[in-house]
Amino acid sequence: MLDVETAPRSRMNKDLRREAILTEAIRALSEKGYHGFSINELARRCGLTTAGILHHFGSKQGLLIALLDMRDRLDQQAILPLLAPEDRRVPSTRDSCLTTLRAIMARNAEQPEIIRLYAILRTEAVVPDHPAFTFFRTREMAVLNVFRDMVSDLVPDPLSTARQILALIGGLEMQWLRESRIFDLVAEWDSAISKILPPPS
Amino acid sequence: MLDVETAPRSRMNKDLRREAILTEAIRALSEKGYHGFSINELARRCGLTTAGILHHFGSKQGLLIALLDMRDRLDQQAILPLLAPEDRRVPSTRDSCLTTLRAIMARNAEQPEIIRLYAILRTEAVVPDHPAFTFFRTREMAVLNVFRDMVSDLVPDPLSTARQILALIGGLEMQWLRESRIFDLVAEWDSAISKILPPPS
Amino acid sequence: MLDVETAPRSRMNKDLRREAILTEAIRALSEKGYHGFSINELARRCGLTTAGILHHFGSKQGLLIALLDMRDRLDQQAILPLLAPEDRRVPSTRDSCLTTLRAIMARNAEQPEIIRLYAILRTEAVVPDHPAFTFFRTREMAVLNVFRDMVSDLVPDPLSTARQILALIGGLEMQWLRESRIFDLVAEWDSAISKILPPPS
Amino acid sequence: MLDVETAPRSRMNKDLRREAILTEAIRALSEKGYHGFSINELARRCGLTTAGILHHFGSKQGLLIALLDMRDRLDQQAILPLLAPEDRRVPSTRDSCLTTLRAIMARNAEQPEIIRLYAILRTEAVVPDHPAFTFFRTREMAVLNVFRDMVSDLVPDPLSTARQILALIGGLEMQWLRESRIFDLVAEWDSAISKILPPPS
DNA sequence: TATGAATGAGCTTTCATTCAT
DNA sequence: TATGAATGAAAGCTCATTCAT
Q1: D198: Cβ–Cβ under 8 A, 6 or more apart, which residues?
Q2: CB–CB contact A36 B124 (8 Å)
Q3: Domain that holds residue D185
Q4: B96 to chain A nearest CA, in Å?
Q5: Tens digits of per-residue pLDDT, B24-48?
Q6: Nearest in space to A150 (alpha carbons), one of A200, A196, A186
Q7: Quick check: A172 and A88 in contact, CB under 8 A?
């Protein structure tokens, strides 16, 4: 019997393999959402079997959880230093706010796939039995709190302002994606935030 | 044996039936998105067969199209009068802008399921082969245009302002859904729009 | 494209199809038991798709239930007349007992597959979460009651006698199956029952 | 990071481990039969990997064979002394028969799981391609022979009597299991055997 | 205006097994 | 003495769809 193109059954280091899978999973998930994507297709894209995927993550849901865990770690690593470069305290001057938020937007603008991933999961996850429901609920409350503290010395309504900032981030990113990124996301952000945090007269 | 316990076999008027199906479809779609929902389950929820659904809409995609058509008509009916009550021209004073936008938000706040429907479809539809891709692309460009014209006499950067308005609408609605509607969406809107369209000094 | 042996998609009457499936299911189940048999293979043996089977019975468990229902009806039809030919009252003379039991054994001897079906399901079903647990529990209690009433005028310990009769039926049938039916089941039965219900001296 | 929470990693003696696995296997097999049980689940219950199980027994079938071997040895050890306490010859008086059989039943009554194991395997194994087919065929012929010799001086039809004894053992045990062991198996046995081996008048 | 039978493709998951470590 | 990665096959089941009635 001819050995017709049986893949070399490449044996990989555990962490490497997991990471490779999760990277591909981001693409798949960001295209179809949790309900729409299939680990079958993911496996194909990764060059291994469905059973191979499940060997690493146990179940479709397990895969999602692992993915969110990883993203959380990465985001934490990237955002925390921004929030408090030297003394790790939440910033409070208008300038530091602007710098921080701008940095966040600039970073996001470089990974549109992640934006799309979060956009779709976050939206799916408003219904309570979605496996990422708690994740996004918790995360967005935390973000809201950080933003609120960040602007607490600058505006009379810190929570509402925090909501507006969060809304604008998500909303502008969405438009940016829909319009195939033809406009300058960071420039648009600057325009927006300047109205929410107006310069001291 | 007599056919005693067959369901009422509601032989319905065609249009009524279609509408009933679409109403149920909104719930299903808003929970799982286009990829995640199934016409099988929809049929069950409607009390008819999968083939019955298909009889009316031809295919899953046909159902979505029909649904978007219907929503478009309804939205048009509701929004157009708001935009130009007496002379159907786009308004331009700050007050009329605020009134219009407030009315939109107030209306949305009364139909959270529709909000969720649009939120999820809009997000799924950023990828070009989604059946609602064109719909949302077109619609959001149109909305952006309307908003831009609406504020063209009030701000120096009408398109950016339009973007910010659109972003805030979507973003605040999303927070509102995620937090189980515990805050006052319209009040939050008033706070937000007052920063985007500041009162003349 | 060549139409390579696509089966004619034979469209059958509902009840006929169900019966055909159930008949095949008996063979499959009697060979492997509920856990061991697969509706996949059953479908193949029936010349239709797995989905086709499930269209009729909903699930593997549904199929088993339907099968047991059918068997119950058939057995009732066959056994009841035996138990009380003319007046439908439970018999009580030794002769009528012997006649009845002999008829049961003779009937069983003609359908070894059914014997094997019951043997395996009955055994699997001693564990409470088996889908046929209740069925066999109920059925055997009923049978025990019938036997007990049947012999109540003939022996001092009717329930124990009933147990012995039931045990002998099942046990001898099992030996008969294992030994490829090389001995005469009915003759062996006669020998056995004559010790349990000895002739009046 | 220190490898803090790794399980005790019980590096076990080979024979001990095999025995431990087989003990768990009895539970699993007695619940689902050979076709229904899975070495995956067995592994989980044993606290080791599927590959771990396979390391010891080679294959699922190998495991079953090993299990039957072990049981055979244990049963032999327990039953042989009963059959011929002092001179290892088959007993022949009615009293010694009764004693022996009673001892067997008493022993069985103490290990219901084993009863269930044999019940299900024995039943599955009537079909010739079952891996335990030969085992049970051989074993039951042997048992039948022993019983026949045992009663050869007491009854006119020793083989039939042997069949009846074997049938009653299995049948009463089955009822006992199904009825959650609420009746006294040994007492019921005494009643049954007294009819098969009636006291000399 | 719908249903009912049936399908092909796909889903998530489990299974027994192999092989290198 | 075991594990860990990986697989091919199969499991039960759901999906969207077709077609005759």
Answers
A1: C195
A2: yes
A3: 68-196
A4: 20
A5: 999 999 999 999 999 999 999 999 9
A6: A196
A7: no
